[in-house]
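Thread: "does anyone have the structure for this chain?"

Original post by V.I.:
We have the sequence but no experimental structure in hand. Need at least a predicted one for the grant figures.
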Amino acid sequence: MLPWQYQHRGWSRASSPNHVVATLDDEEAQRSRSLGMVDIRTKSPEVVLREAYVSAMDIAVERPLPLASKPPTNFAVVLPGLYRSAYPEASDFPFMRTLNLKTIVTLVGKELPDGFQQFVHANRITHQIFDMAGTKKAVIPIKTMQSILSIVNDRKNYPLLVHCNQGKHRTGCVIGVLRKINEWDTTSIVQEYSKFAEPKVRDTDVRYLTDFKPSDIPGTMPTSRQVPYVLRTIYGMAMLASFTLYVWIYSSTRLLLFSTA
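Reply from O.Q.:
Generated one for you, tokens below.
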């Protein structure tokens, strides 16, 4: 019996039709290595599993996929539609587009970063700038806080982002005052402020938030949704009692008229 031989794309067969030997040539092996493939023909099952695990780890951990966008530093949701952060950078704009912002309130007066004004115009965002002094240097004037709250506390301006340089002190004070108007307790307000201000929690800011009274700013009384639950409950019970009394008096009067007729 004459031996036969067949070669194609680096594969070789020899000896006889019942005995086939398949090997990868150097070029095919090099391509496999460059693609990170595991050669299951020439290695034991244990080695194949180990190398497959390493390849998966290399993809998932050592070479993570880049994120399409990232939020600004110190970004957080304050209320539905109300956000806080540090000064947004150009790399943050793709994420900010997903917020569909209607208003941006900037608490620091400085030259706008490159591309910021173009981003605001392109997305039809109303940009309000308040040139606040650093809270370490001066107490926030009542009129300034009142002007800021007239925008931040108005849901017609939402979705809204409020920010300063680092999203810590000025922004923290504005959000803290907003929490007081919404009748948060002082301990929770200071805890939230400290969470974003660390490791530079300012005693002046803590004292400002502790001493601040909503009555200091005219026109900041809680809305019906913000009235404490107990007061709403008492009001509801009073209305129910009045209605019940009215029905009882009306029924008694009708009954008396029928009995005397």
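V.I.: this helps a lot. Residues 102 and 156 are 9 Å apart (CA to CA).
O.Q.: and The chain has nine helices and seven strands.
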